[in-house]
């Protein structure tokens, strides 16, 4: 969807005294560019050159100058500057180029040929004086009208002269080569695009980095040259082509898009369109695409009085710029009404279809000083083939050297605006449909773009209708129209058998003219004339649009009380407004109310005294409105405006309530009525939508109920008869809402499967099997499906069909991530639960179904388990949490691993992460070496207030010494810990004390993974106070190779274990194993039954 946002001011500059007077060259007061800047910043940079001031590089994300070069009042510029942003040593470097028209140090013969270059850091590491000292100056062979510094030519700069000369220089402004056109010409415009963005150049030109397009003029001919630029700096002409422009039209501006779409705007408002096409690698053609359009309601058309055959650029109140494909942005001053004469209008055109996709207006700055004698100047600049923003410069118009002094305000200022844009990537008919009416204002009154002349047949029948209706002979008019339809139908060729019948051709203009004759405006003297038969024929052909009639179709039919045509229109016309729909319902309510008050019986047919057809009942009228496509916000406004009466609202609500109760009283259907073989071996379900001829669809009814309550709830609340109705609606909806909440959980995981189910192209195809299986057929047991067949000796035959093909759908990636994250990865509870499956099978099912919050699930998978093993990871993790603190709430498991060298960052983990990981439950310290951390590290772990488990993993597996006492002290430091696990440690010196820690009262689970040679007597003494409260105890002994029964050296550990477990009366789970590392075998020495 194309949009133009509200413009905002980027900067403002006072008018140079030299330009306020009669200047030597009529230069623009301000030049600007933002080409190729967006690649280096989120919003990019705009480079502005103000005459008599300097060059300023503005950051569009902050709207502040990033770099400024103040040059003084003597320096003037020839053309817009250019800036290229690169990265060096992790800092941005801006290289800015400007062409100097005049300066104290520039000689007379070098004016317009001198190029200055600056290199600076936007961070401001260099002073302006230092930047000026580093400035490079060079003189090129010709004057320069445009300078380009594209990113794809990182070490080069392109200079385009006023005669379409092209010079390519190095980054240090050393000229490498120059080319000139074969004939003299005046440059109209030029553009540079990357080779990847340019789609009209042949693929054989792959070595090219950039493509330069120049458009020049000589006499009445316009010449286009396409030049390819290689990365080495060499450039050559890929092709050229010429088109002719009428001699009476002077060219104001030109554009060229990345697809080769060229537009040429002339002084009388004519806009020509061409397309560049390479017939081969060297032959370029410039073909006209459509008839030229003539613009209107713009100020430059009435003020353009320049001599013909001369390019008049940058001195008119209009500017155009290509924004990709056939989309062109136009900026100018509107004309016409006095209130609009000083407005800047920005129009986004699709010239392929000659429509405006989006528009925006902006009041002209009060400091501009614009008047009839002192017009303004507009420049439009875009920075990429499909930009997200454009830059508009509005300046006082400079005066040529030979002009008399202007009466403009010498204190006028130039304003630089930024305009946000949303431009479709390609030109599509769907974007242009319905935009003709919005575009009509900007066409000249004499434009023939939308003029549609009738053929003889249409003109004849229109003349006959006009004659008969002027004589108020409606029947004769209907007979004439019916005769014309019959004659035209006889001329149509016979349609092939099975094909739709050929219909009489009707055009938009013809139907509109017919409706204007048979439905005349209400203010006319013969407004009562009406031909319902002609209207019904046009409605039956679905050729009528509500916008064809002044004031709308429904009001015109209601004026004539043609209720039958109104009902027909609601079924065939697609653009009836919400206001007309609401007025139709209101009129039906008021008409029936008037009939009842006049004493008519409710059982008799209610017919208006002047009606040409029966009045529809309120349920029938409301059903048409409920099912009609509408916009909810517009419908709410229409109800507030046209349906204010509380009694009328209650009448509508009663009908809606009846429909809701009828739908809610039906038995819900969750299973298909059967299955159909599609002929390829796939069984597809046969689903029937819930439809009732006497009721509108439930979704439509509920939508209208919500709209009605949103718009009129306060009115209904103050009207007591509506209270019971609202309660009944709520009573109907609440059970449905609860059911939908449960079923909606299945939508995410099951939607990919239902959408990927193979659907037959046509069930009428003779090659497709037509048998429909009932649910009973599907539920019948087959040998492969019967549970008893699992115990038979012979395998069951494979079924002859499969629900999904082998290369068909797979589970959504979210489900795959959940299952793999649970089954494959190391489960957080495995260390002390010692079971990865039995207690979590139900969790797998629940996780697979809860997929509504995909973003939440993705963040959960990313942050649930965090492992940090080096300082760089720790710093990066902190920066991520600072940027988005909410991510820390997902972390439940933190694994920090020490390196071989002392880790200062590990000592900072409790202080930096305890408040950021508020929901942390499990802390694992791997390869723990107490000598490599601060002495207070263990005590600082109490800052993690919510952890339930501590896993201390020694460095024995990594080849380092790990002492049981250190790991035990680490595990018992937290008073509220519930589970501890100690792995991969050796005993250490006998003299090493355990530190006096005692287990907390909440400790209920202990896991030890140790070598069999380790002496555990002292460890069990430390853990003895918690033995009575333990519910789970696991002891694994791991060995390099499988071993036999326990030896005598191992028996002291068993006796210590027996004394420890004799006090563990609350144990619910006990596991003791010998674990062999090499072949992953487990020998159980004892289990809970042993003790």
Automatic annotation (TrEMBL):
This is Utp8 C-terminal domain-containing protein. It comes from Steccherinum ochraceum. Residues 775-798 are annotated as: Disordered. Signal peptide: none annotated. Residues 450-582 form the Utp8 C-terminal domain. PANTHER family: NUCLEOLAR PROTEIN 11 (PTHR15633:SF2). GO terms for molecular function: RNA binding. One of its GO terms (biological process) is maturation of SSU-rRNA. The lineage of its organism: Eukaryota, Fungi, Dikarya, Basidiomycota, Agaricomycotina. GO terms for cellular component: nucleolus. Residues 776-795 have a biased composition (Polar residues). It comes from the Eukaryota.
């Amino acid at each position: 969807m194309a949009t133009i946002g509200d413009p905002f001011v980027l900067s403002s500059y006072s008018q140079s005294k030299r330009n306020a007077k009669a200047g030597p060259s009529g230069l623009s007061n301000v030049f600007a560019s933002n080409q190729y800047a967006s690649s280096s910043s989120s919003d990019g940079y705009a480079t502005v050159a103000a005459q008599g001031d300097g060059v300023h590089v503005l950051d569009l994300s902050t709207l502040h100058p990033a770099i400024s070069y103040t040059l003084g009042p003597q320096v003037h510029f020839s053309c817009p500057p250019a800036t290229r942003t690169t990265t060096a040593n992790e800092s941005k470097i801006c290289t800015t180029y400007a062409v100097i028209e005049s300066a104290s140090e520039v000689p007379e013969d070098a004016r317009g040929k001198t190029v200055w270059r600056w290199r600076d850091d936007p961070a401001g590491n260099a002073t302006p004086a230092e930047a000026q000292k580093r400035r490079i100056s060079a003189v090129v062979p010709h004057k320069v009208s445009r300078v380009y510094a594209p990113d794809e030519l990182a070490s080069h700069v392109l200079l385009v002269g006023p005669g379409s000369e092209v010079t390519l220089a190095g980054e240090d402004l050393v000229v490498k080569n120059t080319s000139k056109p074969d004939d003299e010409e005046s440059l109209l415009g030029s553009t540079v695009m990357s080779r990847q963005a340019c789609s009209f150049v042949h693929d054989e030109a792959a070595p090219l980095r950039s493509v330069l397009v120049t458009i020049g003029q000589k006499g009445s001919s316009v010449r286009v040259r396409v030049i390819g630029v290689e990365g080495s700096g060499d450039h050559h002409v890929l092709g050229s082509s010429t088109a002719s422009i009428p001699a009476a039209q002077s060219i104001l501006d030109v554009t060229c898009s990345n697809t080769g779409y060229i537009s040429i705007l002339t002084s009388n408002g004519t806009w020509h369109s061409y397309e560049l096409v390479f017939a081969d690698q060297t032959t370029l053609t410039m073909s006209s695409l459509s008839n030229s359009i003539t613009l209107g309601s713009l100020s430059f058309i009435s003020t353009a009085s320049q001599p013909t055959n001369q390019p008049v650029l940058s001195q008119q109140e209009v500017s155009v710029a290509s924004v990709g494909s056939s989309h062109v942005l136009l900026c100018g001053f509107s004309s016409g009404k006095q209130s609009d004469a000083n407005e800047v209008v920005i129009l986004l055109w699709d010239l392929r279809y000659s429509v405006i996709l989006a528009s925006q207006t902006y009041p002209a700055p009060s400091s501009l000083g614009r008047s009839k004698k002192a017009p303004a100047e507009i420049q439009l600049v875009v920075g990429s083939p499909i930009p997200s923003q454009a830059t508009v410069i509005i300046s006082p118009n400079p005066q040529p050297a030979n002009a008399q002094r202007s009466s403009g305000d010498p204190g006028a200022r130039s304003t630089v605006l930024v305009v946000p844009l949303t431009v479709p990537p390609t030109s599509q008919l769907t974007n242009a449909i319905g935009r003709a009416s919005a575009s009509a204002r900007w066409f000249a009154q004499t434009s023939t773009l939308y003029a549609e002349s009738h053929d003889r047949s249409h003109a004849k029948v229109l003349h006959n209708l006009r004659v008969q209706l002027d004589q108020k002979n409606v029947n004769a008019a209907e007979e004439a129209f019916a005769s014309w339809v019959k004659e035209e139908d006889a001329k149509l060729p016979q349609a092939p058998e099975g094909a739709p019948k050929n219909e009489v051709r009707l055009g938009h203009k013809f139907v509109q003219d017919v409706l204007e004759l048979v439905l005349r405006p209400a203010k006319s003297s013969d407004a009562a004339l009406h031909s319902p038969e002609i209207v019904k024929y046009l409605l039956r052909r679905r050729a009528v649009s509500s916008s064809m009639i002044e004031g709308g179709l429904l009001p015109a039919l209601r004026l004539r009380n043609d209720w039958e045509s109104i009902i027909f229109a609601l079924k065939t016309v697609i653009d009836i407004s919400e206001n007309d729909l609401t007025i139709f319902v209101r009129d039906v309510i008021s008409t029936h109310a008037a009939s009842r008050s006049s004493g008519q019986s409710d059982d008799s047919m209610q017919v208006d005294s002047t009606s040409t057809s029966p009045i529809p009942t309120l349920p029938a009228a409301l059903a048409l409105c409920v099912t009609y496509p509408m916009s909810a916000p517009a419908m709410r406004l229409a109800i507030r405006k046209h349906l204010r009466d509380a009694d009328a609202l209650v009448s509508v609500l009663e009908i809606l309530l009846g429909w809701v109760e009828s739908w809610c009283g039906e038995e819900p259907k969750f299973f298909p009525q059967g299955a159909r073989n599609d002929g390829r071996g796939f069984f597809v379900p046969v689903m029937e939508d819930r439809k009732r001829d006497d009721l509108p669809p439930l979704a439509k009814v509920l939508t209208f109920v919500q709209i009605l309550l949103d718009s009129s709830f306060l009115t209904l609340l103050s009207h007591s008869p509506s209270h019971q109705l609202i309660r009944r609606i709520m009573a109907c909806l609440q059970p449905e809402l609860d059911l939908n909440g449960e079923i909606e959980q299945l939508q995410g995981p099951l939607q990919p499967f239902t959408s990927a189910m193979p659907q037959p192209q046509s069930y009428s195809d003779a090659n497709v099997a037509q048998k429909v299986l009932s649910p009973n057929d599907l539920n019948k047991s087959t040998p492969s499906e019967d549970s008893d067949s699992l115990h038979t000796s012979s395998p069951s035959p494979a079924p002859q069909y499969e629900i999904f093909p082998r290369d068909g759908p797979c589970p959504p990636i979210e489900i795959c991530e959940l299952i793999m994250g649970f089954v494959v990865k190391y489960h957080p509870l495995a260390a002390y639960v010692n079971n990865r499956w039995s207690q979590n099978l139900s969790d797998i099912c629940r996780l697979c179904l809860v997929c509504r919050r995909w973003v939440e699930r993705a963040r959960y998978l990313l942050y649930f388990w965090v492992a940090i093993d080096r300082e760089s990871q720790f710093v990066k993790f902190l920066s991520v949490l600072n940027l988005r603190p909410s991510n820390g709430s997902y972390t439940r498991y933190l694994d920090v691993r020490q390196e071989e060298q002392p880790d200062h960052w590990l000592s900072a983990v409790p202080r930096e992460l305890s408040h950021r990981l508020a929901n942390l439950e499990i802390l694992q310290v791997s390869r723990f070496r107490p000598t490599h951390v601060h002495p207070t590290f263990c005590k600082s772990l109490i800052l993690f207030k919510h952890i339930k488990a501590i896993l201390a993993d020694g460095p024995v597996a990594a080849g380092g010494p790990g002492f049981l006492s250190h790991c035990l002290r680490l595990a018992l430091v937290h008073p509220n810990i519930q589970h501890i696990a100690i792995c991969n440690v050796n005993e250490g010196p006998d003299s090493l004390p355990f530190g006096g820690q005692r287990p907390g009262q909440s400790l209920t689970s202990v896991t030890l993974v140790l070598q069999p040679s380790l002496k555990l007597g002292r460890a069990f003494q430390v853990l003895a106070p918690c033995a009575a409260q333990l519910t789970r105890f696991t002891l694994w002994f791991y060995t390099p190779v499988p071993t036999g029964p326990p030896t005598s050296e191992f028996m002291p550990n068993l006796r210590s274990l027996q004394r420890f477990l004799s006090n563990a009366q609350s144990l619910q789970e006990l596991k003791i194993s010998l674990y062999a590392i090499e072949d992953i075998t487990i020998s159980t020495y004892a289990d809970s039954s042993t003790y």
